[in-house]
Amino acid sequence: MVHISDGVLSPPVLAAGFALAGLLLFVTLRDVRAEEIPKISLITAAVFVASLVHFPVGPTSVHLVMNGLAGILLGKRAFVSVAVALTLQAVLFQHGGISVIGVNAVNMGLPALLAWKIFEGRRRLPSPRREVVFGGLAGGAAVLGATLILSAELLVLGEAFTEIAALVLAVHIPIILIEAAVVGLAAGFLQAVKPEMLIRARDSGYGGD
């Protein structure tokens, strides 16, 4: 469960979530090009499907997140992809909830942006395996980041949520390792067969090689 459900957070926190998500959408959608839309749509579909398969663990559940994959493929557009996927899940399947779309988008979208920046660091490693290494770091860090943000939110809610926060963090350790492996291998594979799929500095409007 990297999602917060309806009825858990207070209205001011929900409003702050929508405000921050709106600001991030404005920043990450700015100057989007028409040729980027098919790629964004494809990754959004992958995030949407991956997060729908749940495995219950006590009072919570776990699922693949794939926000790290979005980060290494879309760069700053990853936030848009995650936000749209979460909105579709909430509207079509009541996954999470409508009122928490903003908070959940921030919870999963900010770590996706972190994954992008981590993956950009591969340029400083002169190794043919750098995409695998930094892809793995990006994939694991994205899920870890989302889990830590969610756990912190639960802790803020009070002592009643302390055990749930600890459980959320513990049960996501295997997911962190799985996604690190999946994203790392995916990055290495794409670098070998279709390197243009991986995000480059110039793809996000920041110049670069």
Number of strands: 2
The best one-word shape is globular
Secondary structure tally, helices: 8
**What share of the residues lie within helices?**
55-70%
Mean pLDDT: 86
Largest sheet: 2 strands, antiparallel
Rg: 17 Å
CATH architecture: Orthogonal Bundle
Structural class: mainly alpha
Distance between the termini: 38 Å
Give the strand line-up of the largest sheet: 1-2
In short:
With 209 residues, this protein is mainly alpha-helical.
Describe this structure in words.
With 209 residues, the protein is an all-alpha fold. Strands 1-2 form a two-stranded antiparallel sheet. The C terminus is likely disordered. The protein is globular, with a radius of gyration of 17 Å. A hairpin with a 2-residue loop joins strand 1 and strand 2. The protein contains eight helices and two strands; from the N terminus they run ααββαααααα. It starts with 10 loop residues before the first helix and ends in a 16-residue tail after the last helix. The chain has a single domain, classed as Arp2/3 complex 21 kDa subunit ARPC3, CATH 1.10.1760. This is Cobalamin (Vitamin B12) biosynthesis CbiM protein. Pfam families: CbiM.
Keywords:
209 residues, mainly alpha, two-stranded antiparallel ribbon, 2 strands, 65% helix, 3% strand, disordered C terminus
SSE inventory with pairings:
Layout: H1 11-29, H2 37-50, E1 55-57, E2 60-62, H3 67-74, H4 78-93, H5 101-120, H6 130-156, H7 162-171, H8 173-193
Antiparallel strand pairs: 1-2
